[in-house]
Predict the structure.
Amino acid sequence: GDSVTQMEGPVTLSEEAFLTINCTYTATGYPSLFWYVQYPGEGLQLLLKATKADDKGSNKGFEATYRKETTSFHLEKGSVQVSDSAVYFCALSADDYKLSFGAGTTVTVRA
Amino acid sequence: GAVVSQHPSWVICKSGTSVKIECRSLDFQATTMFWYRQFPKQSLMLMATSNEGSKATYEQGVEKDKFLINHASLTLSTLTVTSAHPEDSSFYICSATLAGGRIYEQYFGPGTRLTVT
């Protein structure tokens, strides 16, 4: 079945550091790929998406590129802020019926 | 923006009792709602999908008689864990979509932590 594997956390960074969270997937066909973010005390919210190979999703300074050849969708941000402290989930949908999530990566940014 | 709330945020119950978790869309009508379960350090696993006024569709391996889902209105869905046991202890998350919304356009609640003693 469809599955998503993302790097285990927690990840702790200093402000203005570079962040990358690895995500790889297994799916039949050509899934759409997503990153969700969950801030403390809140529900998950969509951060960015890519619906086909080589698409780059971006939002709030975060980027991820859909790499079909490596089945990856790594999340990156060039300069993190304390407000980026959250849990990040990689997800896919192969059929527009349901989402399959990774386990989440907790990121803490220190001032 | 669209907000989904869950109540309670934390519940402790004794083994053998039932517990109800509410999921509400506060400022929109949710035609479809989803219930997820998350174990520590594991993925969110979809339990069931429900449309207002219809029976829920359960994912394979989810006991529908144990996890009762009711979506009686466009703003409220409930999950009742019947005859709870310690292995039912988990984090339960609901989400909702607007009519015609894509699968990724889900609005998530903050989750409910259930502990069964």
Summary: Chain A has a mean pLDDT of 94.
